[in-house]
Amino acid sequence: MSLSSETTPSRSPLKADLLLLLVTIIAAAGWIFSKEAMAGMPPLLFIGSRFLLAGLILAIFDARSLGQLSTARKLRASGVGVLFGGAMACWSLEVALSDQLGVIAFINSFGILLVPVLARLLFKDRPPLSTWIALPTALLGFALLGMGQPGATDGFTIEPAQWLIFGAACLFALVFNFNSRLVRNIPALPLTAIQLMTTGVTCLILSALSESWPAGISLDILSWFLASTLIASTLRFFLQIYAQGLTTPSHASVILMLEAVWAALMSAAWFGERMTLIQMTGCGLIFTALLINRWQWISRLWRQRRVAS
For the packed helices 13-37 and 236-244, what is the interaxial angle rounded to 10 degrees? Predict the structure, then answer.
């Protein structure tokens, strides 16, 4: 969610790689935790409570830095947090509606490809050539996902949850772009804490306006909620921020692409989800597009490893 600078004072590549790999596994498990928790909680109530509590916990970890931020910086961070709240609202609704978490996890990763495109529109940055090769590859994958719905007989069909996840991916790309500039002036941990809390408040307001809250929550659902909050949010973001401080954002983003792969595997193991051959091809094309998008950094890392060995 937040980015550190491309140049870091002290790097530990192996440690960063292992931590980021752990982050992808935790993030993927968060899809399972969330789906189980939303079996007994309205989606917006769940995601709002989860992020507000996670943000408060992170704020306690770095209360000193948070207190030193100017009001203007807090307001800028909160503004992006509202945008992130919109993205997470779409994400929570899509997870609640969908019966194929693995598929929507791959669609969600589409946001990575939109980051340089939006950077071009918003900040006049020039995307690399690989972006324009990756985008049509990913769009073809998205089309195949629509054609490969189990039991579909009308050709191209995108279920409502998949449109929601596509909208969330677009909002995530916006958040990524704004945060890449905010983090230059705001430390990553207090920035993340503010945005998680703002996201929580935003989703809770939307929930109060549109959802009926349950009179009580079972111990089983509460356990999934706490796992989502403490493990998939607080621990995940804490480890991700720490690991990104040991490497560059470009290197980190290559590893973080694995979240969709783990989510698909975990969904298959936990819920017994199965993809059609066309859907697997579509997911494969989206993942290939992610690799194409990061080919410049992947090839650079490969050369560096060869020289080091």
Answer: 160
Cα of first residue to Cα of last residue in the chain, in angstroms, is 33
pLDDT, the chain, mean: 81
The interaxial angle of helices 249-256 and 295-308, nearest 10 deg, is 100
Locus of tokens 């410049």: 296
pTM score, whole prediction = 0.79
The three-state DSSP-derived secondary structure of the chain is CCCCCCCCCCCCHHHHHHHHHHHHHHHHHHHHHHHHHCCCCCHHHHHHHHHHHHHHHHHHHCHHHHHHCCHHHHHHHHHHHHHHHHHHHHHHHHHHHCCCHHHHHHHHCHHHHHHHHHHHHHHCCCCCHHHHHHHHHHHHHHHHHHHCCCCCCCCCCCCHHHHHHHHHHHHHHHHHHHHHHHCCCCCHHHHHHHHHHHHHHHHHHHHHHHCCCCCCCCHHHHHHHHHHHHHHHHHHHHHHHHHHCCCCHHHHHHHHCCHHHHHHHHHHHHHCCCCCHHHHHHHHHHHHHHHHHCHHHHHHHHHHHHHHC
Of 172, 236, 239, 177, whose CA–CA distance to 199 is shortest? 172
pLDDT digits (tens, 9 = 90+) for 127-180: 777 778 888 888 888 778 767 555 555 555 666 666 777 788 888 888 878 877
Distance CA 130, CA 113 (A): 10
Identify the band that residue 271 occupies on the pLDDT scale cut at 50, 70 and 90: confident
Instruction: Give the pLDDT of residue 198.
Output: 95
Could you tell me the maximum CA-CA distance found in the chain, to the nearest angstrom? 62
**How many Å apart are CA 134 and CA 113, to the nearest integer?**
7
